[in-house]
Structure formats: C-alpha cells, structure tokens
Amino acid sequence: MQLVAKFLRDESGATAIEYGLIAALIALGIVVGAGSLGNALNAQFTSVGTTLNNAP
Questions:
Q1: Where does the sequence pass through the membrane (predicted)?
Q2: 49: part of which helix (H) or strand (E)?
Q3: DSSP letter, residue 40
C-alpha cells in the first residue's frame, strides 16, 4: 500500500512530460520558421534570376 501512495505522490514523470512538450513546441517552431525562410529565399532568388535573364 505504501508503494502505491509513493507512486501517486511522485511528480518527476509529469515534469519530464512537460519538458518533452516544450521541446516539441520549440522544434515545431523551428521547422515552421525554416520552411517560411526557405520559401522567402526561393522567391527572392527567383526574382533576381528573372531580372538577370531579362537584362539587355
């Protein structure tokens, strides 16, 4: 019975889950930001390439 009570009072697993969720949210933010940055760079290079191709 004491083992069950000790298990119910232990919160170290909850802390690990919270850190895992925070890490997952940070990783998601990095992935979304990198994708957005990649799209913006692609558009910029396309614009520069088009300008150079149309130069006299």
A1: 21-41
A2: helix 12-53
A3: H
